[in-house]
Write a structure and sequence with these properties.
The chain is mainly beta. It has 8 helices and 39 strands. The protein is 9% helix and 39% strand. It holds the Pfam family choice_anch_I.
């Protein structure tokens, strides 16, 4: 099999590409944010002592009972931290989901706890089944005494749970991730649970919102913005081995607008957001997020992990593929904020070993030395030799013969990109641009029109490179500088917004490099950078890192606490760090001038 990727190394502009970078010039003026600034400072950390086992993921704060609830997927529990002394958080107890289910007579084997949220003394926990393709649950606890109340069975792999602002609804993103052998692929869904809760008695009513109407033979398939999104996935049960749209959709995260009339659901692998009308309990529309053009000024990126800092333009389109999303209001309109992490399906495609089935579904079949298998996360360095892949420039001439004609290691030879999407978007195997995972940024979209009004462009890589030099784009489980440049870069994942004295701030966590980027987004058309804080030590050896001596690693979940609910009267940000297994508290100091 052979394909050609036509490229011109350096800054080029791809014809017919919609360019969205930085702020746009058609926004309206926002309020003057110059009279206030904020600064985050670390005030406390709880250390679980568990490294790289997901011991601290999603967090939520309980101001009434002075507690933080931390999802601990490592032990399939929710850890309860006592914050009576906010400077010294201690483990009070853990919610043992499996034991509580067994006591209540709920059948089924409990798997990981994935998410937690709180409203008015009612705690909701997203709980997967031990076999992730089986139906999971949303479990409810009474926060005051931590007693188990009940559980509502939902679809396969509830990944995130979120209360509406008024507490009348809790929604769960039902990811429907495929089995490890890709023989089973549940449909993605959203579980909408109506809540009646008086502090003692709970009544629930479940509505399941699915996506089958958007399948190829469905009544709404024509509504899909296919030029701005990704439709992929393998199926062992169809004649063409292509997943249905409903199987392809894997809801990841949920945010409500200010009046709870809409819920926004990130469809990460699909580079899209679903908008749900909460009154009709139906899908209003699917917003395709489009693609980021890394060949234009301002959108430079580092494409190789073997060249230190080498941030420049490349003929690459970034698939935003957001994980966490949030919502804010501006002049009567809703806006969606996205942390553009990126994600692929390679974990499950590894186990598809039939070449015909693989290629029918639109993927690449090859052997990089670990055995022949189905490939989406493709890099030229892995497959050029055995699979006769060639790389040419815009004139059809081979690059320098170094490394088999793919260019040097400081070019595009090592970049991981989606073969499936690149093939689809280029209309065949002669590639003029590669479609890579993630946007290496955060973005803001008009929730009604779907227009991107802001993207942080190359800020994250440029800032971290200026601070850390060749140690930028580090991994989160070891100190290896530049290691992630070929694969999603700093990898923004966690995101939340908070309003302080009438001004709105976005907090964005970099999963790989670590740390928190802070922007004033009071005017979503023209945000201002405020601060980057990272307590990670990139100088220690990996033994010290694994022993907890490198600081926080892998920020996964954020929770903003306003001053009124904070234990010390100052706004606070609580961060769950998945790799270091730590929960860290940041005080937000406000300066007016």
């Amino acid at each position: 099999m052979q394909f050609q990727k036509k490229t011109l190394l350096g800054a080029i502009l791809l014809a017919g590409t919609t360019i969205l970078s930085g702020c746009v010039d058609d926004g309206v003026n926002g309020e003057d944010a110059s009279q206030q600034t904020i600064n985050l400072s670390q005030i406390a950390t709880y250390e679980s002592g568990v490294f790289d086992e997901s011991a601290a993921e999603i967090v939520t704060y309980d101001p009434v009972n002075n507690r933080t609830y931390v999802v601990n997927a490592n032990n399939k529990k929710v850890d309860v931290l006592d914050n009576s002394n906010i400077s010294v958080p201690v483990l009070q107890t853990s919610l043992d989901l499996a034991a509580d289910f067994a006591t209540a007579g709920i059948t089924g084997t409990v798997g990981d706890a994935n998410s937690v949220d709180l409203y008015n003394g009612l705690l909701a926990v997203a709980v997967a089944a031990d076999s992730k393709t089986d139906n999971g649950w949303v479990a409810f606890y009474k926060a005051s005494d931590l007693t188990f109340i009940s559980a509502v069975q939902v679809g396969a792999l509830p990944d995130m749970v979120k209360f509406s602002h008024d507490g009348s609804v809790v929604m769960a993103a039902i990811e429907g991730e495929p089995s490890d052998d890709y023989l089973i692929d549940p449909e993605g869904q959203v579980a909408m649970i109506d809540i009646s809760w008086d502090g003692a008695n709970l009544n629930t009513s479940l509505t399941t919102i699915g996506f089958t109407d958007f399948n190829i033979d469905g009544t709404r398939h024509a509504e899909l913005p296919t030029s701005k999104m990704v439709l992929d996935g393998y199926s062992a049960t169809t004649t063409d081995n292509k997943a249905t749209v409903a199987q392809s959709f894997e809801p990841e995260y949920i945010a409500f607008n200010s009046d709870d009339s809409k819920a926004y659901v990130s469809l990460q692998e699909n580079n899209a957001v679903a908008v749900i009308d909460t009154a009709t309990k139906s899908i209003d529309k699917i917003i395709g997020l489009g693609f980021k053009n890394h060949s234009i000024q301002g959108n430079e990126m580092d494409a190789s992990q073997k060249d230190g800092v080498n941030i420049q333009n490349w003929p690459v389109m970034g698939m935003y593929m957001p994980d966490t999303i949030a919502s804010m209001e501006y002049q009567g309109k809703s806006y969606i904020l996205t942390a553009n992490e990126g994600d692929d399906r390679q974990d499950w495609l590894d186990n598809v070993v039939d070449q015909t089935d693989c290629e029918n579904a639109g993927y690449f079949f090859g052997d990089d030395g670990d055995g022949a298998r189905c490939i989406d996360a493709f890099s030229a360095k892995d497959f050029y030799d055995a699979d006769n892949v060639t790389l040419v420039d815009s004139e059809g001439n081979p690059f320098a013969e170094t490394n088999g004609g793919f260019g040097e290691d400081n070019e595009l030879r090592r970049l991981k990109f989606s073969y499936h999407t690149t093939l689809a978007m280029n209309g065949g195997t002669e590639f003029t641009s590669l479609y890579a995972y993630g946007g290496r940024s955060f973005s803001i979209y008009d929730a009604e029109t779907g227009q991107q009004v802001f993207d942080s462009a190359n800020d994250f890589e440029v800032m971290t490179a200026n601070i850390y030099g060749d140690d930028f784009n580090n991994d989160n489980a070891e100190n290896t500088g530049d290691d992630r440049s070929d694969n999603k870069g700093p990898e923004p994942e966690a995101l939340t917004v908070g309003v302080i004295n009438g001004q709105t701030y976005a907090f964005v966590g970099l999963e790989r490099m670590g740390g928190i980027m802070v922007y004033n987004v009071s005017n979503p058309y023209s945000p201002d950078f405020v601060q980057y804080i990272n307590n990670r030590d990139v100088t220690v050896d990996n033994d010290t890192l694994e022993a907890g001596g490198a600081g926080d690693l892998g920020p996964e979940g954020f929770h903003f606490v306003n001053a009124e609910n904070s234990p010390n009267g100052k706004p606070m940000l609580v961060v769950g760090n998945e790799v270091s297994g730590t929960t860290t508290y940041y005080e937000i100091q406000v300066s007016e001038f």
